[in-house]
Amino acid sequence: MKNKIIVFLFYIFFFVPLLAENLNIQSLNITVDKETKITIFKNQVSARDEKNNQLLTEFAEYNKDLKLFKTVGKTTFLTSEGFIIKGEDIIFDNNKNYIKSDRPAIIQDLEKNEIYLDSFEYSTLDSFFKSAGNIKVIDSKNNKYNFSQIYIDEKKKEIVGTD
Fold this sequence. Notes:
Shape: elongated
Distance between the termini: 70 Å
Structural class: mainly beta
Number of strands: 16
Oligomer: single chain
């Protein structure tokens, strides 16, 4: 009987995904820094919110008090509407319902257009991107456009850019 309890506890702590305030985080290696109360995830990290937005990376940290999930290094972000974002050092703020990065990123939309950004912010509530800076759009026919601001509404499937 004692062995069954130990096996059950082992299973709970090492194989069940960590649920972090409506954020499901999975990883091969999970450690907790007891001083800072930050959970560290390494190797095949996947974080998915209740709207089915997903971040994939190799290293991330989660601060339970602030409800902040931060990736370090290369990250792929898949939106619930099917857009693919490739970037680095992405922050998933589950308190304020946004995902953002101050690092360069590339968005690929459903029509295979590529949008190169200096930084971005994405509202998980509205499925809405916004970015300012040097923005380059290369459409599926290889036409190139430059903007200083861009707004992407995934639900309406609209992209609005300004010079």
